[in-house]
Amino acid sequence: METVKISAPSLGGVTITGVKNSEATVQFRGLQYASIEKRYDYPTRVDKYEADVDATEHGAIPPQPARVPSPVIPKDQLPTSSPPQDEFACLNLNITRPSSIPLTQKIPVIVWIFPGANTFGSASDKSYDPTSLVARSAEKDLPIMFVNLNYRLSLLGFVYVDGRANHSMYDQTEALLWVKSHIADFGGDVENITLMGVSAGSLMTHYHSLSKPTAGMFKRIGMMSTVIESRTPFPLEDAKALAAKAKELCGVSSDEELKTVPVETLIDYAVPIIGGMYGPVNDGGWLGEVGEDYIDRLPLDNVEAVMLGNTRFESIFYMPKIGLIPTEERYKRLTEVPVVGDWLAKEYDISPDPATDAESLAKLTQMYDDISYGQPVDMTVRKLRESGKFKTFHYLFDEPNPYLASLDAHHLVDVLFLFNSFKFDAKYDGFVDKYQTGWIRFANGLEPWGEGVSDVVMLNQDITVRKHGEYEQRRRAHAFAKLNQFRHKYDAYNVTKRFLYV
């Protein structure tokens, strides 16, 4: 193992040893950015290391339930092990940079927030290994460095305890502040940072772009698939109910007792039973004031450019979960939704007595896709462009799964091509090059797909300028327009979760 040493003046003048993980890149792994002493403490940023740091191995990852291996990646390419889980040592990050670029040349930085419903995932997950992306950036003479960060998940990161919540958002905030304060030691340009993510990571990116605690920490954002309109802040009453459920499952009655529950009980038992997606809580803290207009808020002035889009068939993986709901119950569950339930049933032709189960399932999945991904992204693009304040680049990712085309362009398939950390057929080489280069150009402050190009389609192993009328052909724009009449009147997550949990 070849190592690389740097001096870190801003971190106490220590020497940090990284590993050359490819011919073109070096990684500094498991760097602690914050500390916590007790469960549900807010994090304290670590701005000085007391001794030299061995950063050749990945740090601990946040505790999370066991996962079924990904069905979209060949089994022989899946990793066989991962770093240990530790709720107190998981606030660490990884930095990947081109080995050929001297530290004196300050280069743009991408900070990545991983996906997983804020329940699963880690900075060291192979799916988000940026080695290929960073290497290509150096090849293109547009070098970037990449930061993967860990943060607390699920009932450790978002539960409402001691009158406060959003521990994960504070974790991410301290990570961004750490990057802003110390990335120059690694050759990063502190004035040229892009924050981005996919799914839950995209959602967190959107929240950060609106929020004062991280104002000025980055100048560009990338949002892949998920935006705030599809997952608005948890109402405080919902957060209190979730905390009560966690206590009930763990056999305790107070916040103090919840702090002493074995982490295995909390994560391996309570989290799977509760299920769902976790996210920021409207507790008056990290989010500040949240009103009905929250989904209309624009990124703060420090953000100059936004790139966002979604895949053609985001919701295909939810079909099995929706299918667990008995056919005869689906109509009832939908029409019980206040304000929009009856309208949605009529609009999507969801009846109490469908001709077939498959027909019912297909219609509900389409509804799920529209209200969770299609309409929210569509409206976000419109709001950004109407404001005239941001360079806004919109893509339609319609390239099917490279291993199983029948899965179509499903949720997260774009990540496979962005990181290129698994082996594909050689026919995808040109597409990977174009796709990675677009994000590299964006992080360098350039127009990602070429001069004057703001809207593209990714399909047939190519990226092409979107033609007139092609958006309406590839996305259900007519349905989005109808859904817009109910903006502010319902929460997409509270509709769709009725069909994900038996």
From TrEMBL:
InterPro entries in the record: AB_hydrolase_fold (IPR029058), CarbesteraseB (IPR002018), Carboxylesterase_B_AS (IPR019826)
EC category: hydrolase
GO-annotated molecular function: hydrolase activity
Keywords of this entry: Hydrolase, Lipid degradation, Lipid metabolism
Record-listed E.C. numbers: 3.1.1.-
Region (Disordered) residue spans: 58-84
Bias (Pro residues) ranges: 62-72
Xref: Gene3D superfamilies: alpha/beta hydrolase
Domain Carboxylesterase type B: residue ranges: 18-447
Xref: Pfam families: COesterase
Catalysed reactions listed for this entry: a triacylglycerol + H2O = a diacylglycerol + a fatty acid + H(+)
Highest taxon listed in the record's lineage: Eukaryota
Alphabetical list of PROSITE patterns matching this protein: CARBOXYLESTERASE_B_1 (PS00122)
Family membership noted in the UniProt record: Belongs to the type-B carboxylesterase/lipase family.
Protein name: Carboxylic ester hydrolase
Species: Myxozyma melibiosi
